[in-house]
Amino acid sequence: MVVAGVMAVAGSAAFAQMGDGMMGHEGMPHRDPAKMAQMHAKHLADLKAKLKITTSQEAAWNTFADSMKPPADMMNKRPDRAEMDKLTTPERIDKMRALHKERMTAMEANMDKRAEATKTFYAALSAEQKKTFDAEHAKMGMRAEGEHRMHSGPDAKPAPKQ
Prior knowledge:
The protein is an all-alpha fold.
């Protein structure tokens, strides 16, 4: 039990240092939000041009594009360091679990919103636009830098490094 306690404390310390070092919250590298917003806007503009959105489809496009905006506060919400330092280890664990649940709930709600907006938008597309959208959507799981996102299913393969 003593060894397990020492390992838990060491793991907590390593996790705290990781948050202050090169890695950001949730183990994700720090990224410039302005640069990411710019890349997101470019991606949407490229998609809109490829789809050749008509005037009658503009409202559905706007709803879809708005739903694709990354939530501003989902990943930036971090526990207050001073508050966390005042807690015991079990209290910190409970606090981190509660924050995790909150993030998962928010992420799930955001995914639902995006799914509904995508389905509504997709229904407004012509057959040719649907083909283009399907081809582009299949690429969305891969990042421009050659990294890969988590894919689900037994046949899922990581994106090739570029």
